[in-house]
Write a structure and sequence with these properties.
CATH superfamily of the largest domain: FAD/NAD(P)-binding domain
Region (Disordered): 550-580
Distance between the termini: 13 Å
Helix content: 25-40%
Number of helices: 16
Protein name: FAD-dependent urate hydroxylase HpyO/Asp monooxygenase CreE-like FAD/NAD(P)-binding domain-containing protein
Pfam families: NAD_binding_9 (PF13454)
CATH class of the largest domain: Alpha Beta
InterPro entries: FAD/NAD-bd_sf, HpyO/CreE_NAD-binding, L-asp_N-monooxygenase_NS-form
Radius of gyration: 25 Å
Organism: Streptomyces umbrinus
Largest sheet: 6 strands, mixed
Length: 604
């Protein structure tokens, strides 16, 4: 009987796992004489392996990166920074199989932000190449359906039930690579939705913007938007260019927006009140900071060995903050020494030995300009204490802030910012081992390291000047009363903006209890463990699903953002040791070793 592996989710994570299976199968599943590598004879695994990919969306891109979406929506990374292939920087047991980045494959300028359709085409190509690279005897079957539930004994075959299919798939192993999931509304969102229905208002809850029905947002009407991250950028694009507006570039290089007349007026705010920082617009030159320095494998080992659990702010953040500061000052002192008052060797020695207060005093004495100092609190709350007399005045202030951010992020004299970016990548790779560390870090990382392309912020400024986009500021509040939605902010105390439409511009947060994915919800109901944040708990070594006693399930694995081993993305920048690649390799090797042992047992 042929062995069977079911992978639920055929997007980048499922494709990445399949690539690692193809890379590792010659060593771990095929062997001389088993027929899988083209040799003659029969032994282990001679019956072969069926891999079933279950996803209603096309393999490769999946839902988020499918080719069938608006060409106006861009990647959030430069084409040179997107790869699905491993290199020698990935800490893994399996073989490296290099391949082209997006810009190499598509023959694009590496600095271009490609559209998501093209990324979807790249992902489809990666999938097709991966399937072609599988040893003979391993077959892939795509089922364009939703997986509804998984049942079966711990020591026996699993049954994966699919929507609209009368019989389940039989699986020796199941791997969940589900990607981003929809969620049932939380209490606040249910109340706002009910209020909208009762008063004939429009309320769009958290969603993947490309899938949202925006037709109810009427031309010329005010729309309150809560959320200033990447989901807002997509919303902005679809409601402006997507409705026929266009940009013109003046002789001075400034953009002017020409409205179509079909746009609503967007009033946007958030906790911070500002968009995510622009992508950095220059290349790295010179010496890289030697990372990790203060937050590496040894520090993570020590944290994991602590009894009684971890508190991120108390136990982890001080180490992370010191690591990011080290990256910042290493670059400042080595690349821009004229802006410092101390030799790097002296500063480094004192920095390494100092606690938080001592480092603060050291920086004050060695770095004269406060703009050259690393201040994560100020970065996280850029508008703290900033007040305006009116919303008109706030518009000028926010435009000045965005213009300043664009200037700085495209000026290599501030290359310490890029060093912090490299520090963030290093830290993220270590934090994966700690499991669920709460939501704050992921938001902070995205705000600093995963912001929009610079051209998007220039478009934002043009829309603001055209009056299509209005800023609400920081500390945004929303209430539903008097038959409307009403928004205020800390930036203009006592003033409010009213509208008959409210959009929550962010992805949903699908805990295992509130996810709309019935398979994941049933796994939790049957005893799978979850973290306090509602993430599925998995074994960090190989991704096996844990039960509430901490025991790994022998036949069920999970990878991706719905788990406590979530990485920073299913694809990553080349030569940065992508944590997702490391996880994919570990899971692929564990799965192949299990299937081989099962095949040996059956043949005995």
């Amino acid at each position: 009987m042929r062995s069977s592996l079911v992978i639920v989710g055929a997007g980048p994570r499922g494709t990445g796992l399949l690539e690692r299976i193809a890379a590792n199968a010659p060593e771990l599943y095929a062997s001389s004489g088993d027929g899988l590598d083209g040799s003659v004879g029969s032994s282990v695994g001679s019956e072969g392996l069926d891999i079933h990919l279950v996803d209603p969306y096309p393999p490769g891109g999946g839902r988020i990166w499918r080719e069938a979406q608006s060409p106006l929506l861009w990647m959030n990374s430069e084409a040179q920074d997107v790869t699905m292939f491993t290199d020698e920087t990935v800490d893994m047991a399996g073989p490296v199989r290099e391949g082209p980045t997006l810009h190499e494959w598509a023959a694009l300028d590496g600095r271009v932000f490609a559209d998501r359709q093209r990324q979807g085409t790249y992902m489809r190509w990666v999938y097709e190449q991966t399937v072609a690279a599988l040893p003979p005897g391993i077959r892939v079957h795509h089922h364009a359906r939703r997986a509804l539930r998984v049942v079966g004994p711990r020591e026996g075959r699993q049954q994966v039930w699919l929507e609209g299919r009368p019989r389940p798939l039989q699986a020796d192993l199941v791997v969940l690579t589900l990607g981003h999931l929809d969620a049932e509304l939380d209490q606040e969102q249910r109340e706002l939705a009910a209020y909208a229905r009762a008063h004939d208002l429009v309320h769009l809850p958290p969603d993947y913007t490309a899938d949202s029905d925006l037709s109810a947002l009427a031309p010329g009407e005010p729309v309150l938007v809560r959320g200033f991250g990447l989901a807002f950028v997509d919303l902005m694009v679809l409601l402006t260019e997507g409705r026929g507006g266009r940009y013109e570039t003046g002789a001075d290089g400034e953009l002017t927006y020409r409205a179509s007349g079909r746009e609503p007026v967007l009033h946007v705010g958030s906790r911070r009140g500002v968009p995510y920082h622009s992508k950095i617009g220059y290349d790295w030159t010179g010496e890289r900071p030697p990372l990790p320095r203060f937050f590496g494998p040894g520090e993570v080992d020590a944290l994991l060995a602590r009894p009684g659990g971890l508190d991120f702010r108390r136990d982890v953040w001080p180490l992370v903050k010191k690591e990011l500061g080290f990256a910042h000052y290493h670059r400042l002192f080595t690349a821009h020494p004229e802006r410092t008052d101390m030799a790097w060797t002296d500063f480094e020695e004192k920095y390494a030995a100092g606690d938080s207060a001592e480092i603060q005093a050291l920086v004050a004495s060695a770095v004269p300009d406060t703009a050259d100092r690393f201040d994560p609190a100020a970065l996280d709350h850029p508008l703290d204490g900033v007040r305006h007399a009116s919303y008109d005045e706030l518009q000028d202030g926010l435009r000045a802030y965005i213009e300043g951010d664009l200037t700085r992020r495209h000026d290599s004299s501030h290359s310490a910012d890029m060093a912090v970016f490299l520090g963030l990548l290093s830290v993220y790779g270590q934090l994966v081992r700690l499991g669920d560390i709460g939501s704050w870090w992921h938001g902070f990382f995205s705000y600093l390291a995963s912001g929009p392309p610079g051209p998007r912020l220039r478009q934002m400024l043009a829309l603001s000047r055209a009056g299509v986009l209005r800023f609400l500021g920081a500390g945004m509040t929303v209430e539903a009363s008097d038959g409307v939605f009403r928004a205020g902010s800390a930036g203009v105390p006592g003033e409010y903006v009213e509208a008959r439409a409210l959009v929550e511009a962010r992805l949903p947060h699908p805990t295992v209890e509130r996810t709309r994915d019935s398979l994941l919800r049933e796994l939790y109901a049957e005893g799978a463990a979850a973290t306090p944040e509602g993430l599925l708990a998995v074994d960090p070594a190989d991704g096996r699903v844990l039960d509430r006693s901490g025991t790994p399930h022998p036949r069920r694995f999970a990878l991706g953002p719905h788990t406590d081993a979530r990485g920073s993305g299913a694809f990553t920048r080349p030569r940065t040791g992508g944590p997702a690649f490391r996880q994919n390799d570990a899971t692929a090797r564990a799965a192949l070793a299990f299937l081989r042992a099962l095949s040996c047992s059956a043949a005995a």
